[in-house]
Write a structure and sequence with these properties.
By secondary structure, the chain is an alpha/beta fold. The protein has 24 helices and 14 strands.
Length: 624
């Protein structure tokens, strides 16, 4: 950052030179002033430094283009504003100066002060958005009015520039008087309410500025979402690093899976489905109390970027819940937290699961469908790794063959395979795309983003991740009847667990009523019972259903490879990409280049029923 202790012609000339070169401008100014302007933006949000009630300034200094006026040399600041207006209005035909300031006494009414005859679209958009604030935040009686006046500054203060001077330098000056809505009658500050208010107000401002840009300028901004800052503050990266460090200090799925699963299975089968050994878990590598202390020492409240603040607060709550669950493995509290973590089972999800099982019967294994063991599968996985490395020479990952895991999993971008793992050879491609083409790929793409959370995963990322992973099985032409039945069976098992079923009852339900093989019935049941009751497995079918809804609604599929995030983050990820904070991802899965990909994606967008997505093993074999 440049630092100017005074603001004379020399300093103003240097600022204008940087703007002329279309470079990002970031500098400190006399009296505690700040100036930040990113390239190709024909507007500037302005606020004046005040001794008390500085919270409104937090909104301003997180804009992509702003000026915080210091508490001295006001006339020189006026000259700076004129110079900036001259150069940027010449580039973009017009230049907007929006001054934001607090009302001295008004508590619920905004006042938009500007030339209603010259800027009808901008003023109306801003006014309408402010009048609708009550829909965004819990507050009543919020109103906004447009005041057509030449006095667009705070009461008792000099104007930033006269109307005539504004015309001469191609600028349009608008004032926004903000009510004292986030203070009580005694002047006490409401911090939690302010956070919601701030985010909603910034959204209103950006929507109206976009209208100004679209109507009055030659700037090529395509969406109001791109008006946020493209350069994030150091505090954002600091919190992002610390959250990632906390999450990386433990392997959640690894620590809640039983270390003695093979003995549990052997004993259960040998006893005629009666004896269930107690689950044993690995020792915790962390102290939950210390980890939670670190978690809540993070000053997320100091982050004013609405998108990043929202993401980090959500993530802190999720990590808090996970850490509690690690302390409660094997107890009923673990199960109750699991319901909260994965949001339970909706009636529509349960009905879809039953529909799948009513239409599809489990296929019997036979010699015509040869299997692939763990060693062969790991060799096949390395070929996909080679495909990734061809796209980015920096790519690397590892494959682990373990006797103490009961399922194939990806953890922190590395593949874990049970030592006794077997899969149908004709299903291998689908499994590779599920684990590597989704989980490993999005971990790597996320690790190449400026935000580490996109590698470890934003809050609720699992549902979208598993939805994409199962969709990849379908798009690579390998989603089998038995596989889809297992996903449905997991929902049935989850519902039975919520209804009070124990291990034997859930196993018998799957084995007897729904016709699962003893192997599949055990695997579904043992997974749903780990930790004391773990509902993660319901999200595979839930994610597939939600992903189809997203695609039917016109959603972009390849956007989902940018990292690990949830359905409720897609609009934020899109915004951050438009702001050039994030990119769309380095690696692409190999099935995107298959001949059948576009045809199958079209089927999904046309709303093919879920149960019709499955293929019989014989049909896969014949088409292979």
């Amino acid at each position: 950052m440049l630092e100017f202790k005074k603001l004379g012609e020399k300093q103003i000339t240097k600022i204008i030179t940087i703007l002329d070169r279309e470079e990002e401008l970031n500098c400190g100014l006399p009296g505690g002033g700040l100036l930040h302007i990113e390239p190709r933006l024909p507007y500037m949000v302005v606020s004046r430094s005040v001794k008390k009630r500085k919270h409104l300034q937090r909104i301003v200094i997180n804009e992509a283009s702003y000026l915080l006026i210091g508490n001295k040399d006001f006339k020189k600041y006026q000259k700076l504003i004129i110079a900036i207006s001259d150069v940027l209005s010449s580039k973009y035909k017009s230049f907007l100066i929006l001054e934001i300031f607090l009302s001295k006494k008004e508590r619920t009414s905004f006042k938009v002060k500007g030339p209603e005859d010259i800027l009808p679209a901008f003023l109306k958009t801003l006014n309408d958005a402010l009048n609708n604030l009550a829909l965004e935040i819990p507050i009543k009686n919020v109103t906004s009015t447009i005041k057509n006046t030449t006095k667009r500054q705070p009461a008792g203060k000099a104007s930033l520039l006269t109307i005539d001077k504004a015309k001469q330098c191609g600028a349009l000056l608008v004032g926004l008087e903000v009510p004292l809505i986030f203070y009580d009658n005694e002047g006490e500050f409401y911090p939690v309410f302010f956070r919601k208010f701030k985010d909603a107000l910034i959204d209103c401002i950006h929507k109206s500025i976009f209208q100004f840009i679209r109507v009055q300028t030659s700037c090529g901004v395509q969406s109001y979402l791109s008006l946020g800052r493209s350069s994030l503050k150091d505090k954002v990266f600091e919190v992002d690093r610390e959250l990632s460090k906390i999450e990386s200090s433990y392997k959640f799925l690894w620590l809640i899976s039983p270390s003695n699963i093979f003995h549990i299975k052997k004993t259960f089968f040998e006893s005629g489905y009666n004896k269930i050994l107690k689950y044993h878990y690995r020792l915790l590598p962390i102290d939950p109390d210390i980890l939670k202390r670190k978690l809540y020492n993070l000053k997320i409240e100091e982050i004013d970027d609405p998108a990043m603040s929202h993401l980090f607060r959500q993530k802190r709550e999720e990590l808090d819940l996970q850490i509690s669950m690690l302390s409660e493995r094997g107890t009923s509290m673990f199960f109750h937290h699991s319901i909260r973590l994965y949001n339970g089972i909706e009636p529509s999800l349960y009905e879809t699961a039953k529909t799948i099982l009513s239409h599809l019967s489990e296929e019997i294994e036979n010699d015509n469908n040869p299997t692939m063991d763990a060693l062969e599968f790991s060799a096949y996985a390395r070929k996909e790794f080679a495909f990734f490395k061809a796209q980015d020479s920096q790519f690397k990952s590892k494959i682990h063959l373990r006797k103490d895991v009961n399922i194939m999993m990806v953890n922190q971008g590395e593949l874990y395979i049970p030592a006794d793992y077997k899969a149908y050879r004709i299903e291998a491609k689908a499994l590779i795309q599920h684990e590597l083409g989704t989980h490993v790929l999005t971990y790597y793409n996320g690790s190449k983003q400026p935000l580490k959370q996109l590698a470890t995963g934003l809050t609720d990322y699992d549902i979208l991740q598993e939805g994409v992973a199962v969709m990849s099985e379908y798009l690579s032409d390998g989603l089998t009847v038995n596989r889809l039945r297992v996903l449905a069976g997991r929902v049935i098992a989850g519902k039975a667990l919520i209804d009070g079923g124990d291990f034997k009852e859930i196993f018998n339900l799957l084995f007897t009523k729904y016709g699962f093989s003893k192997e599949n019935a055990f695997n579904i049941t043992s997974r749903i019972m780990q930790g004391g009751g773990f509902l993660k497995d319901i999200i595979y079918l839930k994610g597939l259903i939600k992903l189809q809804e997203y695609l039917v609604g016109g959603g972009n599929y390849e956007l989902l490879f940018a990292g690990k995030f949830g359905f409720n983050h897609i609009h934020i990820i899109r915004e951050l990409i438009e702001r050039n904070v994030l990119h769309t991802g380095i690696l692409k899965p190999s099935y995107l280049y298959d001949e059948l990909y576009e045809e199958k994606l079209t089927q999904i967008k046309n709303g093919i029923p879920i149960y019709k997505m499955a293929k019989k093993l014989t049909s896969i074999s014949n088409s292979a």
